[in-house]
Amino acid sequence: MLCAEGRIANLLGAEFPELPMQHLEGYRITYPRGVGMVWKMAVTAPHILRCIDREERELRRLTETWKADAVISDNRFGFHHPEVPSAYITHQVMIKAPLAEPLVYRMHRGFMERFHHTWVPDVPASPGLSGDLGHRFALPSNGRFIGPLSRFSGHMPKGGGGLAVVISGPEPQRTLFDENIRGQLRNWQGAVTVVCGRPDLYTDEVTAEGHRIVSHLPSEELEAVMSTADVVLSRSGYSTVMDLAVIGRKAIFVPTLGQTEQEYLARLCDTQGIHLHARQRGFSLADSMGQIERYTGFGTVDSGLFEEAVNQLLG
Hints:
The chain is an alpha/beta fold. It has helices at 6-15, 37-43, 45-66, 101-112, 132-135, 173-185, 219-228, 238-247, 260-271, 285-291, 305-314; strands at residues 2-4, 21-23, 71-74, 86-89, 117-120, 143-145, 163-166, 192-195, 204-206, 212-214, 231-234, 250-253, 276-277. The strands form three sheets. It has a seven-stranded mixed beta sheet with strand order 9-10-8-7-11-12-13, with helices on both faces.
């Protein structure tokens, strides 16, 4: 059974149409146009705490109705049950918070240890894919690394030419990024596919330049687009980092303004010579494509750690 709302519910519903979907209101955190994300999170803390309380009450009702055998929470602090095995997934054991990381870590650890298990989707050896986020501080007492998680198989043909642009993230930054990239592509020569990150729409068109613009693609088609491209242009969210590790492609990362996690991951990959880090303000596609040859991309990463964790959860 899936629990989500809005765009995430649309995405999960498209991936798993055979599964029942329960509406579950999210934290609905909006991202500012500027860079004041830390302040934004501080002022929304009371709202988040109310959401956590609501999640706890709703989960008790759902587990009784559905006779659940286990619960998996994707960064939902309140989605745990004292009697039903509950796993919390996070790659941010340490949440990036300038000047307050040790304090925020201790607070987060308290939430993580309310669950029976904490799953960190990364490899055990530092720096892994997440760097400081998963490796700087100790895992909670219930924590374990489960290897990278990806919707991709990693078995698609690799390379072939062209650029894959994958636009994602919360508004208004998703639209700002979309408009920026499409403007720069108007006179761009070469094969390009733009995936707009809008599972709520159903558009698929070809521009005068021969570029494909599609609102959303299911996982198998998206993997084909990204695997066969020479370069992927995208945000640097951790899900994308894991996808790229599985398919072994190189990327230009443009972090969402104000998202400290994405900014950190983009810098981490850049300093290791894996993916290029570019800023949204003043972003130049031509300049970035001129630099991308200096980067290697990930070698493909795989492990059997996730299966072990699931078997432990189900007892």
